[in-house]
Amino acid sequence: MRVDLFDFELPPERIALRPAEPRDSARLLRVRPDGLADHIVSDLPQLLQPGDVLVFNDTRVIPAQLEGRRGDARIGATLHKREGPRDWRAFVRNAKRVRDGDRIEFGAGVSALAGAKADDGSILLSFEGDEPVEILLERAGRMPLPPYIAARREADARDAEDYQTMFAREKGAVAAPTAALHFTPGLIEALAARGIAHETLTLHVGAGTFLPVKADDTDDHRMHSEWGRIDAATADRLNAARAGGGRIVAVGTTSLRLLESATDEDGIVRPFEGDTAIFITPGYRFRAVDGLLTNFHLPRSTLFMLVSALMGRETMQAAYAHAIAEEYRFYSYGDASLLLP
Q1: Where in the chain does DSSP place strands (E)?
Q2: Alpha helix locations (H) across 53-156?
Q3: One GO MF term, please (predicted)?
């Protein structure tokens, strides 16, 4: 499909620079085939049904943004995907000044050797020393805010908490699964009291989620792979819930993509551990999920293509036009939509 079919105009002032407080006070646009309805996130127990299951991503964002030097050249690095105990693939700013074998000094006693560039322009960084890389990043790294926020303000101490979900446990993401930022312990308790369960899986979100689609046709776009895991017990509970008439509602596109990667043609969720580069566009037949709670996405992005696949492109264009007109807040720290096809 033509990528320009997924374009829309977004006023810059609609981009949220901070999350709603409290988190579950964010606005929520319910989208169904019979129309749109304005709510807030704390309305979710009334918008879902007993027996439904919400599926969250429990990945934890690491301080993956690094600033350093190679000689007299300033180098910026955003870690993208772990390749080994001490090796991370990274998108590098000023990459033309970095050659295979160069040492980059990131300060605080943290350094890495650069490897060769990959086809996507990323560079393999091999961190030196004996300390775990996670400890090195805590010392030298910054929280990797999305580029559309980072271009307008610096990351600060608040982001260390604001940009983690209440489920964040498994370290390894370089971007937050932002739909889950709206949830609080009180909301989870209210959902449970209504008979709505929740499960977790792990997908370590990579920086590739923010890369623009440069191709003119979706067939020519290559997705970056991300590592994920669903254990056997979780898969069994999800299958049992669906067999009992419950709906599986993914919280965030990361949860949805991993669920779809792990589900067979018969709609059975299988245990999964490994990389996925699934690219969901209109025409895709969903096997695992019956709904999606997600934030509002970038124009021409793979994520707007995904929600268009779930609900229909015309429906999502109308929903986004409504959200813009009603001054919903967009992107990672913005408001949410509940998509129920």
Answers
A1: 27-32, 35-40, 53-57, 59-61, 65-70, 73-82, 87-93, 103-107, 110-117, 123-127, 170-173, 197-203, 226-230, 248-251, 272-276, 291-295, 336-339
A2: 133-140, 147-150
A3: S-adenosylmethionine:tRNA ribosyltransferase-isomerase activity
Residue 41, judged by CB atoms within 10 A of its CB (0-12, 13-18, 19+), counts as buried
Do 94 and 125 fall into the same domain? yes
**pLDDT tens by residue, 111-146:** 999 998 988 889 999 999 999 999 999 999 999 999
Query: Is the confidence at residue 197, as pLDDT, over 90?
Result: yes
| pLDDT of 53 above 90 | yes
The answer to whether the peptide bond before residue 22 is cis (omega within 30 degrees of 0) is: yes
Q: What is the pTM of this model?
A: 0.94
Determine the Cα–Cα distance for residues 132 and 232; give it in Å rounded to an integer: 29
Could you tell me if 76 and 119 lie in one domain?
Answer: yes
CA end-to-end distance (rounded Å), the chain: 21
d(C-alpha 276, C-alpha 228), whole Å: 7
Q: Are 149 and 15 in contact (CB under 8 A)?
A: yes
For residue 34, count other CB atoms closer than 10 A to its CB.
Answer: 7
Residue 295: per-residue pLDDT = 98
Question: How many whole angstroms separate alpha carbon 332 and alpha carbon 152?
Answer: 14
Residue with tokens 């308790």: 189
For residue 95, the 8-state DSSP code is: G
Give the structural domain span for 118: 65-141
What residues are paired with 226 via a beta bridge? 276
> Do 33 and 82 reside in the same domain of the chain?
no
Location of structure tokens 């492109």: 313
> Taking 90 as the threshold, does the pLDDT of residue 331 lie above it?
yes
Residue with the two structure tokens 């990131």: 106
Residues 169 and 243 in one domain: yes
Residues 39 and 53 in one domain: yes
Number of structural domains in the chain: 2
Inside any domain, residue 288: yes
CA 239 to chain CA centroid, nearest Å: 24
Residue 259, both tokens: 């669920």
Query: Of 204, 68, 84, which Cα lies nearest the Cα of 132?
Result: 84
